[in-house]
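Please decode residue identities from the backbone states below.
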């Protein structure tokens, strides 16, 4: 079994590619720890921005030990709450839909829940994500409704073709920092599946 991370320069959650087809991967993620906030926003982009601030504050020393925690990738954003997804109809991200969103940073593997410092901001929650299966499709460039919809369609087609049951709303993952030129930024749309 070979575990991969999506970026060579920055640590991220480890996963095994189970199947790859037309740029879409079925991945089995190992358990990992996250720092997470839930924010109210009018869109996924606004949620990403609002959620990034308290999480960045936590890893840059906004914790009881004033420890700095290395940045990892990706930063993920998804609509909060469970959403049933009809496999027979196209599903799109509603980028202008108001509501609750979950924004997450994965924590470097050297940390455990016992050794991570406690966030000073009580909105930042720490917990372990168990091993999960996800379908992922990567795209490069600007994140916009069209590119997200195309990735969602690729993920849904893969799920249908492989008889996999999707059990999460779409997760948009960003892998590059603000100093990466917009045309070179790497993104993924992922959905969790049973298994």
């Amino acid at each position: 079994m070979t575990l991969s991370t999506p970026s060579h320069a920055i640590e991220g959650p480890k996963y095994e590619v189970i199947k790859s087809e037309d740029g879409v991967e079925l991945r089995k993620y190992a358990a990992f720890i996250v720092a997470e906030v839930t924010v109210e926003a009018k869109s996924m982009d606004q949620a990403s921005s609002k959620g990034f601030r308290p999480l960045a504050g936590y890893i840059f020393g906004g914790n009881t030990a004033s420890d700095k925690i290395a940045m990892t990738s990706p930063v993920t954003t998804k609509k909060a709450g469970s959403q049933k997804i009809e496999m027979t109809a196209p599903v799109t991200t509603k980028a202008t839909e108001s509501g609750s969103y979950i924004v997450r940073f994965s924590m470097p593997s050297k940390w455990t829940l016992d050794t991570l410092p406690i966030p000073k901001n009580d909105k930042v929650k720490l917990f372990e994500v168990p091993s999960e299966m996800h379908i992922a499709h990567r795209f490069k460039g600007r994140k916009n409704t069209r590119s997200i919809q195309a990735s969602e369609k690729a993920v849904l087609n893969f799920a249908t073709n492989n008889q996999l049951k999707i059990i999460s709303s779409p997760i948009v993952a960003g892998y590059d920092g603000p100093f990466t030129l917009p045309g070179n930024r790497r993104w993924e749309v992922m959905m969790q599946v049973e298994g």
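Observation: The helical segments are 44-59, 145-161.
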